[in-house]
Amino acid sequence: MEMHDEFLEINDLDWFTSCRGGVIAHFATGGPGVVPDDVRQSISRYEEIYDYFYSRPGGVDVEIVEANLVEFADEAQRARYLKSFVEMAGRGLFSHDASEQGGYKLIAKPKSALKLVDLPKLMQSSICKLPLELTDWIRCDDFTKD
Questions:
Q1: In Å, how far are 12, 20, 27, 68 from 134, measured between CA atoms?
Q2: Closest by Cα among 99, 129, 119, 109 to 15
Q3: Half-sphere exposure of residue 52, counting CA atoms within 13 Å on the CB side?
């Protein structure tokens, strides 16, 4: 079953893609974030990929992209916000959050990146592949394939 617009509006999604250089990126929609057509094609495939990445062990050192953070009321609020992004980056993924200006901003990055070739063959063939250059800011129109 395909993800329709109503499904995307009521669900906060964490989706994954392989980018240029074979690195893996994580994107959190926060509700309104754009999801590429390749990810939208199948809810069951999305769930398999989601389960795979959430079951991976962590342990990779992480760097926070401080310039992309909003101001927090206190350290506890900052820690709550960063928790899931740091966990994903700790699994070797470049972790992004949806931005109010549209697109996605890089929040946490691994010091040792997981690559597409590191994934099991089934995941290599299932995961969305986009021609993205990973920078601190990704525009939604960057989700189009070359």
A1: 22, 8, 12, 14
A2: 129
A3: 21
pTM confidence score: 0.88
For the stretch 112-139, pLDDT in tens is 999 999 999 999 999 999 888 877 777 6
Task: Report how far residue 54's alpha carbon sits from residue 84's, in angstroms, rounded to the nearest whole number.
Answer: 10
Torsion of CA 11, 12, 17, 20, to 10 degrees: 130
Distance spanning both ends of the chain, measured CA to CA: 26
Interval 26-81: pLDDT, tens? 999 876 668 888 888 888 999 999 999 999 999 999 999 999 998 999 999 999 99
Residues 6+ apart with CB under 8 A from 38: 17, 128, 129, 130
| Token pair of 18 as six digits | 């392989």
